[in-house]
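Researcher: Please predict.
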Amino acid sequence: MINKTKIFIILFLSILIIFAICKPNVELTFNEKDLSPVRMGSNKNYIAFACNVDWGTEYIQSILDIFRNHNVKITFFVSGRWAKNNPEILKEIYSNGHEIGNHGYGHRMHSKINFEENYQEINNTHNIVKKHYWNRHDLLCSTFR
């Protein structure tokens, strides 16, 4: 059975290959002034890259180094429990110019919990991140497991 570390390494290497191929377009995209979501396709050659963070803290610094070296900015969707336990790393992610999104507090499957529990998951994470670093924190990536 393949463990989480091997899956992470394979996924990460695949993403690096994509960045190696698309690098000029990625840099151009983040230098544009008017970026907006693409919902119906586009004739531009760029990608949006996000990383959900609930575990794997030991990999974050090397990921940030790679992104810094290639002038890549992404969205990190962090769980509240991770943000609460790793405020310095969260601060570094943000200070490196990456966007921070909400991944719920405890990495729970949002489709399996009620409205109040969903609200608490999202709001608790929002408050942890907002308290320490900044006001804008309005993106959500729910869990699918």
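Model: The longest strand covers residues 50-53.
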